[in-house]
Every structure is written in C-alpha cells, then in structure tokens.
Amino acid sequence: MKNNKPQNDGPPRWAVRFFRWYCNDYLSEAALGDFIELYDRRRVSLGKRKADLLFIGNVLAFLQPFALRRKRKSYGLNELAMFENYFKIAWRTMARQKMYSSIMVGGFALGLATCLVIFLYIRHELSFDKSYTQGERIYRVFNDYRGPDGSRWTSMPPMVAQIMKTDYPEVEKAGRLVPQKWQQAGSNLFRREDQAENLYEEGFVYADNELLDILEIPFVSGSRETALAKPNSIVLSKRMADKYFPGEDAVGKTVILNENKTTPYVIGGVMANFPSNTHLHYDFLLTLTGVEFWPGEQTSWCCWNYDTYVRLKPGTDPVALEKKLLTIRDTYMMNYLKETGDPGAAEAKTRYFIGLQPVKNIHLDPEKVSDDMHRGDVRYIWLFGSIAVFILLLACINFINLSTAKSANRAKEVGLRKVVGSVRGYLIRQFLTESLVYSVVSFVFGVLIVTLAIPFFNSLAGTELSIPWRTVWFAPSLAVAALVIGIFAGLYPAFYLSSFKPAEVLKGTVSKGSRSSGLRSALVVFQFATSIVLIIGTFIIYKQMNFILHTKVGFDKDQVVMIRGANTLGEQRTTFKDELLQLSEVEDVTLTDYLPVMGTNRDQNTFWKEGKTREDRGVPGQFWFVDTDYIRTLGMKVFEGRDFDKQLASDSQAVVINQAMVKSLGLKKPVGERITNSYTVFTVIGVVEDFNFESMKGAIGPICLTLGKGGSIAAVKVNSRNMGGALVSLTKVWNKFMPHQPFRYSFLDESYARMYEDVSRTGKILTCFASLAIIVACLGLFALSSFMVEQRGKEISIRLVMGATTGSIFQLLTGNFVKLVLIALVIAAPLSWYLMQRWLEDYTYRINVTWDVFVVAGVISVFIALITVSYQSIRAALANPANRLRSE
Q1: Which one-letter DSSP state was computed for residue 669?
Q2: Which is it for strands 265-271 and 233-237: parallel, antiparallel or unpaired?
Q3: Do the Cβ atoms of 274 and 235 come closer than 8 Å?
Q4: 3-state SS assignment for residue 617
Q5: pLDDT category, 6, cuts 50, 70, 90?
Q6: What are phi and psi for residue 501, nearest 5 degrees?
Q7: Measuring CA to CA, which residue among 366, 370, 369, 367 is closest to residue 382?
Q8: Would you say residue 5 has pLDDT above 70?
Q9: What are phi and psi of 201, to 5 degrees?
Q10: What is the pLDDT of residue 709?
Q11: 687/655 Cα distance (integer angstroms)
C-alpha cells in the first residue's frame, strides 16, 4: 500500500511513530486519524511549518495515562472464543480460495518434506560412531607427515599396537585392523566345510581379538573376549550366520575360504550386524592371532598395513600422549631407517609425527586422514543443509507473496473490522493464526510426502534413513517447527495486512497499490535465482560425470568381462585361460588381481634406481603382478620399449613402468635402466602411457608392472557385440572346470563407473532438489500471475475493447515476470560459477565451466516461467471483454 502524497507533505514521521509507540491500540487509529485531518486543514490555512508544530503539540498533549499502552489482561473464555473464531475464519478462507490454498499448502508441504528428508540425512551423518559407551576414550592412530607433500594416513607397521600397550601406561587396550583389500581381506569364496558349493562374499577384514572389546562390538553368540583369540578363528555377522547356518548355532563350525582346505577357519562367535551409522561395515572378521604373512613380517618396519585403535585410560590427555608417541619415531622407527641406510631418516626425524583421531571423527574426518573406508563428506552436509533452508525459504516466500498480493481482497475485511472496533493487535493475531493453520496442515502433508518418498531417497543416496516415529523428541519437534515456521512465514503478512487504514480502504488506494510490489518482485527474483543456481550446479556435475566416464583414461574398459574367483582354479588356471582364448567371441584374456578399478588389489612399494637406495629419496608407487597378456587385453599403449614376452625367460625380472614413474625416478632413457624396490632389482623393458588406476580426483601416480603367477580375476576382452551369447560361452567353459561354483562376473566399465558413485548420486540428488525448487517457485509464480490477471481484469478488458491484440495482452502480462527471471539469472550466474569452481577444485582432471551452461539454464528458467504464467495470460487475452466490463 502506497501513499500518493509526496513524502514531505505529511506530518513529521517521527511524531507519528512516537504516537503509535505509546498510544494503546484502542485509541491509536481514531486519534491519529483526527490529528491528521486537523493537520491537513491547518496546513492549508497556516502552512506546513506551523501545522507540523501543532501536530507535535497534539501528540505530546495526548501523552496521558488513559492513552498509554498497558499490559494486556487475560480475558479467559473470551480469549478462547476469539481464537476459536480465528481458526474458523482461517478454515473458511482456505475452503473458499481452493486454488490459492492448495498452492500455499502444496508449496509449503514440498518445502517441509525436503527439509525433513535433509534433516534426517544430516542427523544420520552426524550420528556416526556416537554409540560407544566409552567413545570419548577410543582413538585411531594415524601417521602425520608434515613435509612439502604433507599427508596423513592410517596404515602402521604390525608391532605398533603392541608397543603402545607395553610402552605407554596411558593406553588401556590396543588392537589392529586390516581394512584394505589385501591377502584375504576384502572378498573371498566362502562355504561351510560340509557343503561343496562356494559363494562369493565381500566384507572380510583382519582384526585382533582386543579390537572386539575396544569397539564394543556386541555378540549374538559366543564370547567377545575369546572369539578371535585362537589362530584360524573367524567371527560372522548375524546376517551371514543366518544365511549359512539357519536355525543352528554357528559357533564352533568350520568354514573354508577360497577352497583352501589346508587352512580352515573355525567360527569363534557371531556378532550383531553393524548399524548403518558406524565406519565399520564388515560381515567376516578374520583373526590376526598367530598370523605372519611372510617370515619376519610381524617384527619388521618395512611394511605398513595395519590400522591401530587404542582405548585410553580414564583421564588421559590425548594431546599430551601424542607428544609422547614421538618416542616410537625416535627409537623403533629411526633404528630401522638407520639400519637400512634409508636416506630419508633425517627428514623423517623432523617431519614425521603420530596423531590420535577420535573414533567419532572417522566418518566425517575433520583431521583429513586417508584410509580405505567409505566416509561422509562434511561439505555435502553444509550443501544439503543450505539447500533445505533455501527451499523452505522459497515455500515461505510463496506464502508471503500470495498473502500480500491478495491484500486488496482482505483490505475491506480489515477496514470493516477496524470500523467495528477491532484493534491492530487482534488483527495481527488473526492473520498469524491463519498462517499457523496453513503451517500445521502443510506439516501433515509434508510428513505424508516424506513417508512415501523416503524409500526413493534411500535408493538414490545409498542411505538407510527412516522416520524416527518412536523417539520422544520427534513429534514435539515437529509441533515446535510448525509453530516457528508458521509464525515466521506469517509475520510480515500479518503486520502488512493489519496496517490498512479504513479511510484508505474506502478510497480504493489499497487496491491500486497492490498491483505491484517491489518486495514481491524481489522475492520472485530470490526464488528463481536459487532455482537457477541449483540448475547450473546440476548441469556442471553431470558434465563432470560425463567427462569422467567418457574421457580417455589410458586403457580400454569397454567389452571387458571380469570373471571372479579364478584363483580357485588352482593349477588349472592356465588351461582355463587357453580354453577361453579358443572361443570365437574372445579376443584376449589376462589373469591378475590388479585392475585399474576400485575393489581390486593394490600394493604400495617404494622404488629407487639401482644402487641409489642409500642416496636418493624413494619414489612411492604401485607394484602390480600381471601376466604377459595384461597390457594387450586392457588396450594400453606401450609408449617406449616393448611389452612382456612369454618366450623370454629374462622377463621374469623385468618391469614395465608408466610415464609417471619415469618422471618421478628421473629416468632420461628408461628402457634398459634397472630399478629396485629394495628387495629385488628389475630391468625396465618398456613404458606405457599413463592410465588412471585411481579416482580422477587425484593425479596419476607411478606404477610398476611385473610378471606374476595368476590371480583371482580373469579379465576377458570380448570382440562380439552379442554380449549375451559371449557370456553363455564363458559360462560353459567355467562350468566345465568348476561345476560346483557359480559363474560370477562383472564388467570393467561398470566397475569403473562405480568408482564415481558419489558424484553420480550427488548429481541425482541435486536434480531432485533443483526440480523441487523449480516446482515450488512455479507454484508461487502461477498463483501470482493468476492474481495479477484477476486484479487487472478491467484494464485488460478496456485494452481489448480499444483494439489491443492477443499478443500485446500476453506480452503485457508476461513481460514483467520474464524480466524478473532474467534479473535472477544475472544474480545466479556468477554465484553458481564461483560455487562450482570450488567443487571442481577436488578434481585434478576436470571440465571447464563454459558459458553455454548459463545460457541453457537461463533459457530453461525463462521457458518454465513463460509456461507457468502463459495459461492465465492467454486465458485473459482470449476472454470476452464485454462479460468482464458488464460485471464491473
């Protein structure tokens, strides 16, 4: 509502505000109206200055006890009846204006449902590893290298856990875990001893018996104190015990892994399934009791493969203990480095530290410690939390926009209520009650939407969220949230609508003023700017995902079938491979445990030029065992030198390295050079082009390929487009060799795509949120356009009578909205560019953010806005003007 008078024509504003501040609601409107009328007459006769002074005098003279605001008294039953009346009017208003009510409730419900889902997601992410009764004393030990290429990682030498128990009285217990795919950790073929058929299972991990107590793993059967105390013991999850031993007590039963009958495992206990909000997700715990993977492995500082967990004694200061742990570096570690003549000893003395990470921090990892576990990302919590707030704001904006836009319809009601004695405070309460009714109804629909949508979100985000109906806090929290959001959304409309003056309502100035509003335009711009940011973010994530999946990665991942469990073929592996090569559909076959996709083996070594182990700093790199057909099967390109040759016996001591290894070792003419990993000296016979064997978030690291004996995976390059027929042929060959073991396979390109599931999920989730934001914004725009058409009906009819065309009417009604969307695009483009540049910084290999993304997002936004407002605009342009003018 606007005053048509110039701003300096009225009485002093401060005097008006002062009067409203001290005067009670019963006298305020009437007295102020009299003062202003008197002011207008004095201004004509005496001039503005004298009129102002006299107005101020009137205000001050009215400052008497009877006019002052007082604390409101309680009127008991009258108050109750009043609120009953408010609810009745609110309900009638909703019922009378079905379209507007549906849009407000629908938008609110969508926004609230989105917020609730995101709240459950964030709550789940923040609840990881918070259930331990002694969680404040449980820590994971990590390495902290503070050099130029500083890094933190968890793998420790095997004896660190024992050293911490014996050398540090602050440590109550210490235990080890081998979570990475190494030896039998990861996946295996598994069967009961008394059954012949093997099944492939994942979720194997090595663990010390002490770790069961440190991590408070609950047991269903057997004793936690002794479950892994004996050599060759294994603990199964309840899920696996029920699968393999239904209706039986699994404890004491014998199982076989990978057909290795010489080393059977005895089940020492059955643990409860790990909950979804813990960093541990394993079904099989293999004991480390009595385990030594090779002679001297358990007493050497050469190989770091063990994560170490400790439980400190009560009252221990972890920061002080971290300082004491440096004695491990200064004694055990330095002695080993000096004995081996490692040139990095001096550097390690100053840059290597040992830290303690609280177990509750492992999932979100604020300490930035690298490990082999699936973790959350605190940035996504902030991102989704922000999206939830913005979508809720969009829904609130719809309510504010529609409430203020319909102010003209409510102006007469407000004016009449004031005329018959209603004060502003009562009107504010009435409109806030309406807002609360909308909020409560929307919450009911919102919870219903969440109940229906939560399974879809779980499948989309890979989560196991559920609505905590049975918790004591859930229902009260919803009630408080409905109250707070209802008041927040209704506050501005309540004050705005209750400020109408009866005299202005009768003059019709309220109706004219409601036609346009800077605030409403600003809120529409905000809505679409938010939506456009989400659209642009979604486009860029999908472009990056497309780049990852289709860019040249240095090997051919298409048409490659990975046959699992080849290690169980034993000595028949070579024969099996030869029979596969006889198939017309098969081009090449390689046997290995190492492939450039997640879930296959990794082996980190350190390499030097021959004779430089005591002079040069070692180059960390992967050391993979392959066969002579590996490079050809995976379509890698030999950049220099040659591939392995099965006819040359000397190749057993040869290696093929990648370009990154050449660069890191500083080899000018790599072919013929000799390098070592401190155990064996190898001759470099070839160099392959760099290929991505880890996530594209990081740079390609050095890698060294050498000949090994077989592996658990037979990677088969198929040359036929008929993949179904090829799989049938492969199955027949497999069944010929292993009739009691199911044929298990996957595709290399799918395994590669799974490495980027988090990116794909983020893109899908953002798509959903962007769609919801657009829907909520469009609901508001549709209702706003409907209302504008209704308000300007008389004007449109006159324009049509005067000869205006349908196109001009359409342009008149849609032009303003299109301008608002374009303004939103101008605001959203730089903001989204900045945000997505920050997101892309995580990737070493990434796309460039190009202008076409912004153009497409802008065109889509304008198109959606036009579609939204077109229906009402075209309907108004095609209406018969005579009908409208007759009713006016």
Answers
A1: S
A2: parallel
A3: no
A4: coil
A5: very low
A6: -100, 135
A7: 366
A8: no
A9: -135, 145
A10: 79
A11: 9
CA 624 → CA 223, 605, 709, distances in Å?
A: 40, 10, 11
The token pair at 760 is: 């794909």
Q: What is the pLDDT of residues 176-234, one digit of tens each?
A: 999 887 888 888 889 999 888 888 888 999 999 999 999 999 999 999 999 999 999 99
Quote the tokens at residue 10. 């009225």
Q: Tell how far CA 424 is from the center of its chain.
A: 46
Q: What one-character-per-residue DSSP string does 284-343 give?
A: EEEE-TT--SSTTGGG-SS---BEEEEEEPTT--HHHHHHHTHHHIIIIIHHHHHHTT-T
Residues 684, 656 contacting (CB under 8 angstroms): yes
Whether 628 has a pLDDT exceeding 60, the answer reads yes
Q: d(Cα 235, Cα 215) in Å, to the nearest integer?
A: 14
CB atoms within 10 A of CB 160: 25
Helix, strand, coil % over all residues of the chain, rounded to 5: 55, 15, 30
> Encoding tokens for residue 11?
């009485």
Read off the pTM.
0.74
Longest dimension (CA), the chain: 118
Closest to 174 in 3D by CA, of 309, 288, 294, 45: 309
The predicted-structure confidence for 153-179, as pLDDT tens digits, reads as follows 999 999 999 999 999 999 999 999 998
Rg from Cα positions in the chain: 37
Shortest CA distance to 370 belongs to which of 383, 389, 357?
A: 357
Q: 24-56: b or e for each residue (b if 16 or more CB lie within 10 Å)?
A: ebeebbebbeebeeebeebbeeeeeeebbebbb
Q: Give the integer Cα–Cα distance in Å for 695 and 286.
A: 29
What CA–CA distance (Å, rounded) separates 713 from 333?
A: 37
Contact assessment for residue 161 and residue 176, using Cβ atoms and an 8 Å cutoff: yes
Measured over the CA atoms of residue 126, residue 127, residue 133 and residue 134, the dihedral's sign is negative
Give me the pLDDT at residue 76, please: 54
* Cα four-point dihedral sign 744, 747, 752, 758: negative
Q: Return the pLDDT at 773.
A: 78
Percent of the chain past pLDDT 90, that is, above it, reads 28
Give the integer Cα–Cα distance in Å for 699 and 620.
Answer: 14
d(CA 427, CA 877): 37
**Which tokens sit at 55?**
């107005």
With CA atoms as reference, report the closest residue to 499 among 37, 17, 10. Answer: 17
Residue 24 near residue 69 (C-beta atoms within 8 A): yes
Q: Using CA atoms, how far apart are residues 745 and 751, in angstroms rounded to an integer?
A: 11
Least confident range of 10-14, 27-31, 187-191, 468-472 = 27-31
Beta bridge partners of 641: 686
**What secondary structure letter does DSSP report for 612?**
-
| Structure-token pair, residue 341 | 């003549």
* Whole-number Cα distances in Å, 494 to 265, 416, 500, 751: 72, 16, 11, 57
| Alpha-carbon gap, residue 790 to 100, rounded angstroms | 13
What are the phi and psi torsion angles at 229 (to 5°)? -75, -25
Three-class DSSP category at 820: helix
Please provide the DSSP assignment of 749-770 as one string.
Answer: HHHHHHTTHHHHHHHHHHHHHH
Give me the phi and psi of 262, to 5 degrees please. Answer: -75, -20
Give the span between the Cα atoms of 282 and 479, in whole angstroms.
Answer: 39
Quick one: DSSP state of residue 848?
-
Neighbours of 752 (CB within 10 A): 21
Which range, of 52-66, 319-333, 793-807, averages the lowest pLDDT? 793-807
* φ, ψ of residue 228 in degrees (nearest 5): -115, 20
CA distance 124 to 119: 8
Give me 243's structure tokens: 């699968």
pLDDT, residue 510, reads 57
Residue count of the chain: 888
| Statement: residue 721 has pLDDT above 50 | yes
The mean pLDDT value of the chain amounts to 85
